[in-house]
Amino acid sequence: MNKLKKLLPLYAVIPICLLIIFNIIAFSFTKLITDGGFHYDVSLPIDFKIPFVPAFIVIYIGSFVQWIWGFRLIAVQSKDFCFRIISYEIVAKLICLAIFLIMPTIMVRPEITGNGVFDWLTKLIYWFDTPTNLCPSLHCLESYVIFRASFSIKKHRTALVIFNGVFALLVFASVLFVKQHLFVDIPAAIIVSELGFFIGKKVKSHRVFEKIDSVVFRKGRI
What is the pTM of this model? Predict the structure, then answer.
């Protein structure tokens, strides 16, 4: 139990679980409502000039590892920091949910004719994920939030900011080169992330987790 607590503090379990739930609701549940209906095409001329580079699927899939590592790092900093960052991202996810319902977007993905391992992995991603709910890109949003949070982590801050900044840029490139997103989806993800932080701070969204924590982990319960 002590080893598990070091890996992920108990106070972080509920926030992270809720973050995952809201992510599923924002991304997958909205598809059940909007798929089959009208979708907007927000492609720009630059999107047709960006080549399909299947090797970038390694970064695209590798971003999941960065998210797990990044949110675990956020969680172990302190209870207050964990509650703030995760609550701000949930606010951003709620904004995404509203956008996905109000203005669902779609794109045309290329036909993959290659037989290499990168082509196979990209086909697998295409099979799992329909080309909808694109703007803003949740892939880019996750990596940007971790990069944003890096500035507030004191230990190894410079190294963390550089690493997460470079990795976020690679993720931005990957979603374009594997044709999972359009160019506008990237700045939209950054804007929504910043809105999440701004609104979260204004409404003190972290207090929701403080209240939950005081009820669930009050003395004598756990």
Answer: 0.91
Return per-residue pLDDT of the chain as tens, 222 residues.
555 566 788 899 999 999 999 999 999 999 989 988 899 999 999 999 999 999 999 999 999 999 999 999 999 999 999 999 999 999 999 999 999 999 999 999 999 988 899 999 999 999 988 899 999 999 999 999 999 999 998 888 899 999 999 999 999 999 999 999 999 999 999 999 999 999 999 999 999 999 988 888 765 454
**CA distances for 132 relative to 11, 46, 58, 60, 109, angstroms:** 34, 19, 21, 17, 11
